[in-house]
Write a structure and sequence with these properties.
Length: 224
């Protein structure tokens, strides 16, 4: 089964649409991910369409928040679901939920893209939806710049600061703060201990506060 049989292409998550036949959307929507995946391995295209519609939003947002590039996020989202379509049997439900499997795959593909094209790591806010770039309220409230800058400037500063974090710290922040995953789920995706996730997240928050504080100081200095 080829992805093109469902839709000519999946380059843009915003324009992808699947036609689910004879009310099958309602029936399939009630199935768990692993049940849909079993149908997919049997060649059920509608099961794949349901999985795509259910999971592509989180995959895209994770890729965007990790890379800062809408172009990379779209390309990675396409690759993730192409791989899932081709290699559905490679998923082992005993190792965790499908969502974690997709996050892990997205993570690897994002880093691969950024290694090849480091210039892609910039936040193209004009090309991305505001909801996809939303910053968790708790990160905004931690920023000391909130009283001095407009809210939009604060949010942009937090986004940019997250992109400057070391890889492990950035992953912890995006998974636990943006996607609200538990430490256990994040540890499964990152292949590390729960304690490691906790320490990375703690250190990431400290670095964000430090960098945002430095930005505030530099912006309030009077010119000589």
């Amino acid at each position: 089964m080829e992805l093109s049989s469902l839709n000519p292409a999946i380059p843009n998550r915003c324009t992808v649409q699947f036609v689910l036949k004879n009310g099958s959307m309602a029936a399939l929507a009630n199935l768990r991910d692993d049940e849909l995946l079993r149908l997919l391995t049997d060649g059920d295209e509608q099961a794949f369409a349901t999985l795509y519609q259910r999971r592509q939003g989180a995959v895209y947002r994770f890729a965007l928040q990790m890379s800062g590039s809408p172009a990379v996020a779209e390309e990675v989202t396409q690759e993730v679901f192409m791989i899932l379509l081709r290699e559905a049997k490679a998923y082992d439900p005993r190792r965790g939920p499908l969502a974690s499997y997709l996050y892990g795959m997205t993570r690897r593909l994002v880093w691969r893209h950024l290694e090849r094209n480091p210039q892609h790591q910039s936040l193209g806010t004009d090309e991305a939806d505001a909801d996809d770039l939303a910053v968790p309220e708790q990160l905004i409230s931690r920023s000391e710049t909130q009283q001095d800058l407009e809210r939009g400037e604060v949010i942009q500063s937090v986004r940019q600061a997250i992109l400057t974090l070391p890889a492990g710290y950035r992953e912890a922040v995006v998974l636990c703060e943006f996607h609200e995953l538990s430490y256990e789920d994040a540890a499964r995706i990152l292949g590390c201990a729960v304690g490691t996730v906790r320490s990375r997240l703690h250190r990431a928050r400290a670095l964000l506060a430090e960098r945002l504080g430095a930005k505030k100081s530099s912006s309030t200095k009077c010119p000589a």
